[in-house]
Amino acid sequence: MNNKGILTAAAMSALLGLSACSQWPWSGSSNSGSTQTHSSLNNQKAQSHDSSPQQNTVAAMNQNGIHVVADPRSTLVLVNKYFKLPNDYVPNDLVDLDVPFIFSGKSEKKKMRRAAAAPLKRMFDAAKKDGIQLAGVSAYRSHKSQVALFNYYVQRDGEKKALNYSARPGTSEHETGLAIDVSGMNGKYAATQEFGKTPEAAWLAKHAQDYGFIVRYPEGKESVTGYEYEAWHLRYVGLPAAQKIAQAHETLEEYLNDVPVSQ
């Protein structure tokens, strides 16, 4: 979500459970029969860091149609305007997060995949020691929730306008269980461009990579990611990938172009 729809505090609290990060218009034509493979992705390959013993391809951006990812369980899975998750994908290792959120009560958006949950806790604890109080805004989002969110925005603003800031179902990183939007404890500037100017955003930009997270949509990389700068949207990719991406000032797309698959 971006500044295009300013909400009251109460409305924002209610909607953040479904809130999408800022999305740019959908590009390309649907190609649901295509999967993320060596041949279909111009041999751009990367090593899968999934805990599964099977090593599957994680590939970088290919703008020739829309591809269904071959290995949605990989912690390096690429989900963007050109790569979508299977419609029936549900992470089988979601756990409740042991970090504060800006809202109370139980919710799916307080969950992430197990691989990301413990590193997130360590990151929040480290920030607190540095005087930075982080809070979760929205983590996992089911496909059903993404459908409801997108349809809501289409009904409110029309499809053309909605596509400027909301992701079509299946293309949101939140559906992977590896992404989380964060803010300060008071929720001020949550999921808005103003968050990028806060001490919390500065701390995350400097330290998130040490815990396996990256700022997924960095400033100045809009033409690569297809998304505007989102200082609040963190994506777990694991170590050492996160540190390499941050040190090289790369995006996940650029990193996956350069990392060969392990045979």
UniProtKB/TrEMBL annotation:
Residues 27-40 have a biased composition (Low complexity). Residues 27-56 are annotated as: Disordered. The keyword Signal applies. Keywords: Carboxypeptidase, Hydrolase, Protease, Signal. InterPro entries: DD-CPase-like, VanY-like_core_dom, VanY/YodJ_core_dom, Zn_M74/Hedgehog-like. Residues 110-238 form the D-alanyl-D-alanine carboxypeptidase-like core domain. GO terms for biological process: proteolysis. Residues 1-22 form the signal peptide. PROSITE patterns: PROKAR_LIPOPROTEIN. Residues 41-56 have a biased composition (Polar residues). Pfam families: VanY. Gene3D superfamilies: 3.30.1380.10. SUPFAM superfamilies: Hedgehog/DD-peptidase (SSF55166). The keyword Nuclease does not apply. GO terms for molecular function: carboxypeptidase activity. This is D-alanyl-D-alanine carboxypeptidase.
